[in-house]
Protein: Pilus assembly protein CpaF
Organism: Lampropedia cohaerens
Amino acid sequence: MTTEPFDVPAERQASAFEATELYAELKDRAYDHLLTRIEELGAEFGRWSQSAIAQFVLLELDSFIRLHSVPVNEQEALTVARALTRELTGLGPLQDLLEDPQVEDILINGHANVYVSRGGMLQRENVRFRDDEHVLRIVRRILAPIGRRLDESSPMVDARLPDGGRINVIIAPLAIDGPSVSIRKFRKDPLTPPELVALGTFNEDICRILEMAVQSRCNILVSGGTSSGKTSLLNALASFIPHTERIVSIEDTAELSLNHDHVVRLESRPGGFDGGGMVSIRDLLRNSLRMRPDRIIVGEVRGGEVLELLQAMNTGHDGSMGTIHASSPRECLYRAEMLAGFAGFQGSEVSLRRQIANAVDFIVQIGRLSNGRRRLLSLTEVTGMTDNMISMQELYRYEPYVGADGQEHDHWVSLGISPHSPKLQAWWRMQQQQAAAGGWNG
């Protein structure tokens, strides 16, 4: 029995139609027609509601299709009408992607190349823009409410979106092959530690150690590469902070969504065209020390602010946290050392390493695997100095194995080492007693 077209679900039919040249041509020509009609309406159009605009699009499109004898059926006409309504009232081809909860990143490399990340994996989308000017029109519509400028005199923008996401745009003459747009979406409800355990990011034993490390006011750096899940993990760790404490969060672009009662959120400000008015993370960190914080959380340590953060960790602001771009715990320490050197640290190399060793208690290394899954790769404790080098001990290491079913399974190896930090000694002794009594398998 053959399947007739009307047996195919409407969504699949619409998706297939959107990939055709007929759809692109009809949408472009009808859009030009609508712009002409809108010009005729003048200021009156600006007072219409979204539902009124949607009805206007339906009527005008129906008239256009009949006039030009376009060979489309009713469902295909509705698909075009929805797209045109999004162009006039929303964000055009980006609207559906921004509303899709599965989409993590949207990447535009010129008008003809649109990619999205779902579950950590990039894939090309059939989303179509008419030309580069169409991309810029949509981007400027995104930037308008936040007052950011994008033109030849200011060809780069990095900004926070009203819904908490982030957008980065580079245009000509810096971008050679058309506008480059990167949109990072964030969950409205950040993942909790139990949810990360359920997703397989780490196991319950590691979750228990992380909980006690945060509650015992250990200083923690979350290390990893781009899109490895650092921000999500930092959000989850912050949920362990007692609600009686005051948190000051500092970011370049506000991405953290801390589930806490008492949070002061600070965001750096780029300079104007002449470089004036800039407020850096380093400036905010210095000021935060006068704001009576119990803990300071830095969204990403990427410059001279590392010195202020180390100073805060060493002078009574225990329990502070931050993320840093690095490929391993040892590389994380090297990067912190390098950033401090670039920031003009005046002491010797050994004194800098001693300050880092005294400040940082734990490094949590997270990574994105080739299959897109995010996993905690290492839980490492900084134990002090040995022979002028920062010494560390790894408490847990990610070592997946292939089971009898031929599938790769998550597995974390405990090295059976007790934490060195005196902040955790009492808790660790209690865990050992429970383990001896058969109550804990850590």
